[in-house]
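Hi everyone,

Forwarding the result from last night's run.
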Amino acid sequence: MTLRNQLLFLLALMFGSVLVAKTLIDISRVGPEVAARAGAEARLALLQAGPGIERAYRDERMADVRAGLARLATVGGPGRAAILDDRGAVLAASEQRLERLSAGAAGLSWATDLAAMPTPEPLTEVVNESLHAVATIHSRPQPAPDPELLGPVPPPPPSSPTLALALQTDLALQYAAGRRSVAVETALIAAGALLMLWLLSIALRLELQRPARQIVQTIEAFDGGDRAARNGLRGRSELSRIAKAFDGMADRLRQSEADLLDSQVRLDRTLQALPMGVMVVRRDDGRPFFVNPRWRELFGIPDDASRDVLSLLSQVRCEHPDGSPFAIEELPIPAVLRSGQVAEARELCVRRDDRVLALSVVALPLSFSGAESFDAVLALAAEADASSPVAVPTFQVDTWTRGATSSDVATVVAHMESVMAAPAAEPESAALYGRDTVLVASPDRAELEAAKQALEANGLRVLAALDGSQGMVYFGREGPAIRVVVLDLALAGPSGEMLLDEILALDPAARIVAMCGYRPDLPQLAASGKIATFLTRPFRVERLCETVRQAMGTAIGV
């Protein structure tokens, strides 16, 4: 049952209950009102007709008596009238057949009982919707004493016989008329109530049911995939406000989905066009759910999501540089699936027909839920010189969506591409090059010392700062001479980000190498253009030197 029907049912029940109660009260009042009105009419009729009937009876004009009784019998409805003596005999009646019958035989025994009551006024009673009325009359007049006569008052003559003038009227018609009047009034009130309910039903349909149905249909259509579904309701009612709120939410959601889809499309295109191979494998069944064309080109495997990664890799001939076979379980992806730890293969050779590709492959676990366990494995592969060691960063990805690759994975890919695409380090025996200055700011004393030694060993002058304040002192003093700033974004004192902004305010062309682990804001930080390159932890000192060389735009240690 709809809300409108429930409301109408409650209103009808309330109106009906009130109407039934009113009808019962009105019907209960019909009887007393009819009895009172009929009694008053009967008493008036007896007082008016009684003297004439009495004179006609004394004069023995029986025709006039019967005519008067017949007129009296019509008062208040169909009835009969009669004259009875004190013995209960019917002396005259409106219906001649009743004459000479006893009161009991004529159905007028009640008249003798009422006539016996000592009262000069007519008496009435209503029994079973029948009016009984009695008035007394005399068979001969009572002589009054003459006031002109002198002497003692003579004794009164014998009293004349007292007769009863009885009237019986059937009040059924009056009772029926009263009930009919109540019924008509009730019907009119009910018709008015039904008209009001009908008008209310139309109003509720316009103001409640139709908007509610429109909202439900819009929600169902929106949930079914029609993102253009809107209510379009106008007005200031509560439902209109709800509809407007839903339309606004739907607009925002549609725009968010469009933006997300656009980002996903651009991200997928980016991943598809990467010069390095990318594969993502589920942990639970070992099946890949993303493989870009470069990966398929490097390993020569089909894009078959129904096969697990071990089955796919078993078709690839992987070797060590000396030509010995590379066991499948030693490959980075199976190793990560087995251990949950970052794995790499820097000396992986893939034999493809008549040529051998030297690849550098890194695989790392991904946690979608942020838990300690991982849910998938991300593997990156690129052609590389197997002799050049490369540091492997570690990441934890909090979110992932199938089909539209996560921006977090894009960040990983961007960092890994930066790491893996770097040229090989020059031999350590190369000659020193210049005395360019590098500022290194890190709160880790051991890391700072190792970085200083490695860079100085490559002919660079190093300014080492343990916190942001010391870093600002160095840069404020020797800013123009500092070629590269290696900055830990987690510095104490003035934070690394604050120090970054201060350095760029002093020298907008400063080359910044940011040292950090995984951060949720890495995509925004990378897009800001403030960072020349990222140096992701953990890293080897060789990788540090290569990153500094890239930032300087020239070779070091030669």
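Residues 230-273 form one domain.

Cheers,
N.
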